[in-house]
Every structure is written in C-alpha cells, then in structure tokens.
Amino acid sequence: MAAFEGIINASGRALLASSRCYAIDKGEAVAVAFDFKKEYKDLYHATSRPSIVDVPPMTYIAVRGSGDPNEEGGAYQASIGVLYALAYTIKMSKRGDHVIDGYFDFVVPPLEGFWWQEGVRGVSYADKASFQWVSAIRVPDFVTPAELGWAAGAAAKKKGLDCSSAHLVQMEEGLCVQALHVGPFDDEPATVTQMDEFLAREGYENDFSESRRHHEIYLSDARRVAPEKWRTIIRHPVRKA
Description:
Blueprint: E1 6-8, E2 14-16, E3 21-25, E4 28-32, H1 36-39, H2 41-44, E5 51-55, E6 58-66, H3 75-91, E7 111-116, E8 132-138, H4 145-159, E9 166-171, E10 174-182, H5 188-202, E11 204-206, E12 214-218, E13 231-240
Parallel strand pairs: 1-3
Antiparallel strand pairs: 1-2, 3-4, 5-10, 6-8, 6-9, 7-8, 7-12, 10-13, 11-13, 12-13
C-alpha cells in the first residue's frame, strides 16, 4: 500500500489525498514525516490478545543469513547495522544532492525478522544455531533497486560499511494471526501457544510455507530495555481450517 498525502484533522487522523503527510501549524500545511506505525496501527499496535489481520504487500530492505542471532559479532548482528545504515541514508537523502523520485520524509520503522529452520514447522527455540533468517526494515515504495544501490554506495563512502548483502524484497503475507509478546525471546513459546489456541477456537490453522514464515516485529531496543520489558509482535500466516 502506497504512502499518502493528507491533512491531519482535529482528531489527529490523516485525511487521504495522494503521497505525503501534512499537519496544520498556525493555519498552514506543514510536511511531517510519514510514520508506518501510526498509519498502519492494526499491523504495529498488536495486543497480548491474538487477532487476525490481512497484511498487504510491503517493500523491505532485507539481509538473509543463518545461525544463532545471539552470536556476538555474528552475521545477524552485522545485518542490523547494514539495514539501519541504508534506511537512514535513504531517509536523510533530503539533506544532500541526490534526488529520489517520489521521495517523502518518513520515520524509519522497527526492525523485523522472518525465521525458519529446515524440517521444522514454525520455529524451535531450543536450536538457535540452525536458524535461517531474513532481517528486514520496511521502506516506502519509492525505494527501488537503483536507489538501494545508491544508498549502499553512499554508506560505504561515509561509514566504510559493506552493504552488498542487502537487497530489496516485497513480502506478501496475506492472512495472519498476530499477538504482542512481552518478555525475553526465549519465552515466546507461551505466546505462540496462545495464538495456536485462538486459531483452533476461531476455525483457522497455521499456513507456513517457503514464502510465509514465522515473523517478528521488534518494538523495543534490546540494548536499552530490560529483557522482561521487551515488546515483540509475533505474526504467523494462517488459513481457514
């Protein structure tokens, strides 16, 4: 779904127009950064009570890898640095000479991850070394492979960072169940159990496949928040039973 242009009314709700967002300041329209979390609240404001959502196609900068995400200095941790460097290079292009067609300012969305293991339906938290993963950050649809290539070159020049592992992908999750998990990642199985029980009551079943994976959205900065307060949206693909 494309970002939009709109005027924020008295209730703070955006009114659809075309491709950017504006707020009213002293009677004048002022451009404000588009925030995916605010404009797609059903996708980023889950509660501990599981719910069904229909997820539209989304564009991501992504890095694919494997192995234990907790490995100090490992591939997963390196991927996070690459993703944020690229996302912020694109966002801050407004301050440089490079012009991106269709650009509008945006708030960099939270980090996300798609996880799986060979021969496992869902994920097994007991064997982190066997994880396959795609680490990702959502970006506006104006980000093309060419613009990602420009951002990788700019990040390499400014930060000395090799971003060649990143690529642009479009995820199409469709019908899913999601719930908010609060606490350490190792405690996620309890939340997944609640999601599975909800599916059974409501007449749905999990529908994992090569293109539809266990999905996590990280709403907390694990470097600054205690593990017992980490907030993670867990999302699983489903179908009617």
